[in-house]
């Protein structure tokens, strides 16, 4: 399988990159990320050209260069070797590593994996992370799944699964009759579900405090290629407006490590938050963070990783038999394949 | 390597299939087994056609259908999708899974893996399991070995190994001079050994209580293709008839999971059991169950798995150099290859 | 990748081969080593020809033969089967295993992996192990690295890495300006470094007791193909002769298990040892043994294994960009490739 290469992928949360260099595997390429002395971020190929030692096992020098931990060669943010500490110190011309465009935005570190000029306007707008009060944002969290990232996108674009896989917590069977609407804006695909008169799942009951009374519920999830998904979801009183209700925007940021492994960064921002006393507020945000992580790790991950293993079996590579609810996922797949094809045809993005 | 496909394989002991669906990998095919509300058994392809989620992660509904745990599709015993809980509930024609013939018999669940009509008369006669008093049957046990099942059949058809690998417990060097007789009836192969005047191995001393006096010993093992072996073995007084002695029929039921992994179900039924006080009886059967499992897990398994690893090394795929005692195993191999070849030629059994 | 085959490799320390047979994987061949009743050593293919059971799971009989643990066949040191305990005891002609030339020398067991006649004069001279007082030799130790052995040879032939990877312990940045001299004698390559006026690294301070004063330091490492390296290294007072100083000869003996795994035997002999009271002596040798093992296991091994993993990634197989300090390693590589090519051309060494 190929990937869209001329695109921004999330490498990590900004808060997770400090004085130590960090490594990531992205689109099967080993990458080292570090901050120079001034806090600026750089991303380089994680292999020292000398003998392929991983640069992330080294350290950042006071001058802001990254020093290989094996023989002490130093590289600057452009990937140029700027110091050979040995003998007469001469530096062969070929002693340089590939540098990747990076951008710190919306409290995330984004990396551009293609050969074209990076298009900074293509970074998804996650400004809700910047604009919300800190107490209205969950933990900035991440995990790694042993599955192709398309399986995770499918999981998210078809939220009908919450009624079964996350029964009682994020959804329930009341909502299976929901009208599903698929819309497209450019290459972004949105799947909307409106679920009137349903029992409030635990997560929403927590935010909206209905004490078991039924609610109207919505979920509008948008996929922004290649790997960002924003899920505006919440509940309101029966027959009331969405503005009278309360919910979250769930952020799901997927980065392929390999064809069978995906980095998954996530957080949620409360929308139209009801106000609670500060200690209740703190408790709610902690519960919200825990509940989401638990659902992803204990319910989605085992299912998606099991799907991946099934695909690996003998005659496992079958076309899915799609349901009405899969309209969004089908559209996503077409867009993905088309963009990969167009990159391949242009011949400028081969790894 | 190929397998005989038009044949019955053991999927599990009946007692191990209750209200929860269970999964097995058989001939490299993922299978889910479950009981409907009435206790009837079904076996389906373990992959939901929608998105290949493993059906065994779902549950059995009150109506007896198997519900996928991901999006809630329900399948009946024939593999037909009978409910789509989403939207208007329409079910695509292609939404069905392969169903495998199954038969519960002799306290085992048997599965038919081929494309021909199942031949119910081909289930091996293990009625000794049904007819024996419960107190004369060991635990119904199983394990999984990381080795091709032919290596396990070889182990069993050439019982000369018990003198070395299970020294003192199931055999000893006294018996190495045994006359070995190989006979064939249809495709069943029997290897018989008569070992007069030998020290009683621990297992038989336990059943026959000779307190260390020598015995005459026999072992008659029959292979019923593809994976069932019955070993009638026991001891008697020197010069006495077999009827005056006591022993067991050891049942060894082998099911290939993959080319390098085998499900191994086992139990033993006492033959001509001497009568003991009930508490001694209970203790003997517990010891017998433990001793056999211990011998299989701690002695056979490491040796057979090490053989498998050796076969995986560079120039490891060598023809075995056979001994006189290997007559049965050689015949087994010919029959196996012939039946696989005939299935392949008929063209109706390809997976 | 190919190996030099007509050469001696270290199979183990003599002290580690006692009454139990031991197994090794060398150049991807499974080998069993054992001592007969008289203490003589033999090395055989570790696969019983009968059914490929690993012979090392058997035992050495009183007669000095090696008995297979599965069916009891016995083999002598030449690899001939000398006993079949079953039936009439006849032994098929093909029932023999390959025997490898072995030689116990310098407290090591050496094995010859090629098809040519073994050249006993080619065993590297490690007589310093025999001639030193026992209290001047470290533990005879070994470990296994998940990396190709060339990566380990590179590590050793370019000792510039000690200034960074083993900073403070075996080297420091003072020494990076060292003049590096590469010489060759036959196929042996020596890399010499002279480092005047440097802070004494911990290991040498321990042996020479300078209490922090600066020293002149040297390191002369010689590679003897295919896998033996001797590192004569030490310190002396500034401006003083090497004879007035003290150091060690570090022995590094590398044996490829597979293309991605290496057996690494090591020890060190003190040279020109200063005399200490016996209890201090004992403590120093224990510290010296511990310090070296710790440096290899905690510093070299993670780096070298990470290099190996990097080489396994997509476009990882790149030519190294060499520095001035790599002269020795480059020469080593040429010699290795030339000898492998010449063996292949002669056609007598294929496995």
From TrEMBL, chains A, B, C:
Gene3D superfamilies: Naphthalene 1,2-dioxygenase Alpha Subunit, Chain A, domain 1 (3.90.380.10), Rieske [2Fe-2S] iron-sulphur domain (2.102.10.10). Residues 8-111 form the Rieske domain. InterPro entries: Cholesterol_7-desaturase, Rieske_2Fe-2S, Rieske_2Fe-2S_sf, VanA_C_cat. Transmembrane segments: none annotated. It comes from the Bacteria. This is Vanillate O-demethylase monooxygenase subunit. The keyword Metal-binding applies. It comes from Pusillimonas noertemannii. PROSITE patterns: RIESKE (PS51296). Coiled coil: none annotated. GO terms for molecular function: 2 iron, 2 sulfur cluster binding; metal ion binding; methyltransferase activity; monooxygenase activity. GO terms for biological process: methylation. Keywords: 2Fe-2S, Iron, Iron-sulfur, Metal-binding, Methyltransferase, Monooxygenase, Oxidoreductase, Transferase.
């Amino acid at each position: 399988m190929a990937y869209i290469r001329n695109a921004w992928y999330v490498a990590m949360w900004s808060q997770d990159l400090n004085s130590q260099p960090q490594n990531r595997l992205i689109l099967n390429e080993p990458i080292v990320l570090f901050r120079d002395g001034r806090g600026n971020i750089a991303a380089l190929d994680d292999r020292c050209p000398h003998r392929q030692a991983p640069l992330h096992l080294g350290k950042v020098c006071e001058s802001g260069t990254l020093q290989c931990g094996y023989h002490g060669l130093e590289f600057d943010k452009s990937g140029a070797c700027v110091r050979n500490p040995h003998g007469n110190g001469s530096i062969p011309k070929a002693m340089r590593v590939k540098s990747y465009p990076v951008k710190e935005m919306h409290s995330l570190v984004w990396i551009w994996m293609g050969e074209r000029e990076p298009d900074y306007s293509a970074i998804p707008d996650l400004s809700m992370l910047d604009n919300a009060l800190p107490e209205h944002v969950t933990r900035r969290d991440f995990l790694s799944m042993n599955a192709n990232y398309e399986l995770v996108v499918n999981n998210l674009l078809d939220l009908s699964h919450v009624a079964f896989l996350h029964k009682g917590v994020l959804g329930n069977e009341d909502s299976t009759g929901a009208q599903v609407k698929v819309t497209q804006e450019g290459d972004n695909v949105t799947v909307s579900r409106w679920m009137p008169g349903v029992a409030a799942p635990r997560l929403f009951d927590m935010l909206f405090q209905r004490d078991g009374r039924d609610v109207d519920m919505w979920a509008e999830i948008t996929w922004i290629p290649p790997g960002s998904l924003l899920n505006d979801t919440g509940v309101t009183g029966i027959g009331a407006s969405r503005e009278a209700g309360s919910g979250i925007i769930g952020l799901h940021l997927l980065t392929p490590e390999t064809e069978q492994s995906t980095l998954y960064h996530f957080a949620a921002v409360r929308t139209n938050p009801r106000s609670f006393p500060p200690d209740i507020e703190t408790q709610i945000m902690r519960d919200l963070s825990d509940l989401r992580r638990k659902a992803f790790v204990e319910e989605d991950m085992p299912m998606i990783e099991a799907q991946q293993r099934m695909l690996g079996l003998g005659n496992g590579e079958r076309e899915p038999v799609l349901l009405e609810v899969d309209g969004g996922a089908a559209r996503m797949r077409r867009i993905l394949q088309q963009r990969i094809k167009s990159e391949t045809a242009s011949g400028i993005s081969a790894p």
